[in-house]
Amino acid sequence: MSLCLVAAGKTAVLAVSAFTLSWTHSVEKVEWREHYAVTPAGLVLTEAAVKGSGAGMEPGDGAVLREGWWVWRPDRKPLPKLDLAASGATVSDWQLCHADGCLDLGKAAGADTQIMPCSRTP
C-alpha cells in the first residue's frame, strides 16, 4: 500500500504500510502518539499512547502504563482519511514517522493536510 498526503493542492505519495502520527496537546503540553496500518479498507489505528493525562487526554480502555506512557489498543473501524488542521496557534506541528524517516506537517496556519491510503485520493 501507499500513503497519500494531500496539502496545498499537491499530493505526496509514500510507499509505507504503517506510520506513527504524533503531536503535543495544545492545552496540556503532553505528547500523544497514534500508530496506524495502511490497508485497502482504510487507516487502521493499531495503538495509541499518551505521555500523561488531562483535559481531553484520558487514556483509552485497557490502557497500561509503559515507560511513562499510557498505551492502549483502540477498537475502531478503519478510517478513510485523517484531516489534520493547522491553526498556527498550537505548541507543535504534527509529525508523521515511518520506516524511512519523519515528516513535519502543519507548520503554518492553514497548512492543513489530509492523510489517506492512495486508493482513496479525492
Query: What share of the residues lie within helices?
Result: under 10%
Low-confidence segments: none
Number of strands: 11
Strand content: over 45%
Helix/strand class: mainly beta
Instruction: Please tell me what the overall shape is.
Output: globular
**What is the arithmetic mean of pLDDT?**
86
Secondary-structure element pattern, one letter each: EEEEEEEEEEE
> In whole angstroms, how far apart are the ends?
17 Å
Number of alpha- plus pi-helical segments: 0
Radius of gyration: 14 Å
Write out the strand line-up for the largest beta sheet, numbering strands in chain order.
Answer: 6-7-5-4-3-9-10
Largest sheet: 7 strands, antiparallel
Summarize this, please?
With 122 residues, the protein is mainly β. 0% of the residues lie in helices and 49% in strands.
Write up what this structure looks like.
The protein has 122 residues and is mainly beta. The chain has strands spanning 3-7, 10-14, 18-24, 31-39, 42-50, 64-66, 69-72, 82-84, 94-98, 101-105, 113-117. Strands 6-7-5-4-3-9-10 form a seven-stranded antiparallel beta sheet, with no helix packed on it. The protein has a four-stranded antiparallel beta sheet with strand order 2-1-11-8, with no helix packed on it. The chain contains no helices and eleven strands. The chain is globular.
Question: What brief labels describe this structure?
Answer:
single chain, seven-stranded antiparallel beta sheet, mainly beta, 122 residues, 11 strands, four-stranded antiparallel beta sheet, globular, 49% strand
